């Protein structure tokens, strides 16, 4: 099933569970980290706004207009749950959608389970959201962290590099990606070594120190999970220090335009990434 059909189907199922007059809008609650990740989420917002406009110009859903009520979670699980409660209790939404950061998405998924409210997770990549912490009310659009990492491992084992450096944001998504990378690489390439780990706080990377620590460990290759502003800083400082010269770099999501385009002329050449140009 295509993603658009899945999303429309969830809206229809949720709307059918709530009696309403024919002209009353179908309300969907949308929660996201717009202030924390604006480079990715402002284009995302424009996308769903355009979709709503097109749907309503085409007659809505079963003759009813679609209305998205959006809230900012400030990148905090507690704020996301409070927003979800307000959207359900006060605004009367029939389903929830959105979520960018994995730990925030997990909080909304747990709320959805408790309230038996459909939740379409648009971006949280942690495996827990549909595996360990999965529930019957939570659906996800994107490939999981495990899937993204597995794609890169397929390429990594071909290179047969022994000493790996790991650079990742220190929260659920980064931790999950590195755990999967270690597990998969150890199984596929016995004798592999993970010689250094750098796990800066999300959006607060000291890129110079991170790049220097990685360089000092003299790895054969680097597995990178940073993104957004952290990735920009890491690329800049690593390039200045010659960190990437003659060294293999694998980067989760590094090929996505939201993270690649801001690098402009600083975009690294030869990295192996997931994403699309």
Question: Which structural traits does this protein have?
Answer:
single chain; alpha/beta; Rossmann fold; 2 domains; 5-stranded parallel beta sheet
Description:
This protein is α/β, with parallel strands linked by helices and about 280 residues long. The chain folds into two domains: about 5-140, Response regulator (Rossmann fold); about 145-275, Rossmann fold. Helices cover about 45% and strands about 15% of the residues. The protein contains nine helices and ten strands. A five-stranded parallel sheet has the order 2-1-3-4-5, with helices on both faces. Helix 5 runs parallel beside helix 6 (about 170-190) and helix 7 (about 205-215) packs across helix 8. The longest helix has 20 residues, at about 40-55. The chain is elongated and about 65 Å long. The mean pLDDT is about 90.
Briefly summarize what is shown.
With 277 residues, this protein is an alpha/beta fold. The protein contains 9 helices and 10 strands. Helix 3 (77-89) runs parallel beside helix 4.
């Amino acid at each position: 099933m295509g993603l658009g059909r899945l999303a429309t189907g969830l809206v229809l199922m949720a709307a059918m569970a709530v009696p309403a007059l024919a002209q009353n809008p179908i309300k969907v609650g949308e929660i996201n980290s717009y202030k924390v990740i604006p480079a990715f989420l402002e284009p995302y917002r424009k996308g769903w706004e355009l979709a709503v406009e097109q749907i309503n110009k085409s007659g809505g859903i079963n003759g009813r207009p679609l209305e998205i009520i959006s809230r900012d979670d400030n990148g905090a699980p507690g704020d996301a749950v409070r927003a979800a409660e307000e959207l359900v209790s006060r605004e009367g939404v029939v389903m929830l959608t959105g979520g960018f950061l994995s730990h925030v998405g997990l909080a909304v998924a747990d709320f959805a389970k408790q309230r038996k409210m459909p939740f379409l997770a648009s971006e949280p990549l942690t495996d827990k959201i549909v595996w360990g912490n999965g529930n019957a009310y939570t659906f996800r659009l994107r490939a999981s962290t495990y899937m993204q990492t597995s794609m890169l491992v397929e390429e990594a084992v071909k290179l047969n590099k022994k000493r790996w450096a790991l650079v990742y944001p220190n929260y659920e998504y980064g931790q999950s990606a590195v755990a999967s990378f270690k597990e998969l690489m150890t199984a596929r390439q016995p004798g592999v070594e993970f010689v250094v780990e750098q796990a800066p706080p999300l959006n607060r990377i000291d890129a110079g120190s991170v790049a220097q620590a990685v360089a000092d460990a003299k790895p054969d290759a680097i597995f990178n999970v940073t993104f957004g502003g952290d990735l920009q800083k890491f690329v800049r400082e690593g390039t200045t220090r010659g960190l990437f010269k003659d060294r293999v770099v694998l980067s989760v999501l590094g090929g996505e335009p939201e993270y690649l385009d801001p690098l402009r002329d600083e975009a690294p050449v030869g990295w192996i990434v997931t994403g699309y140009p």
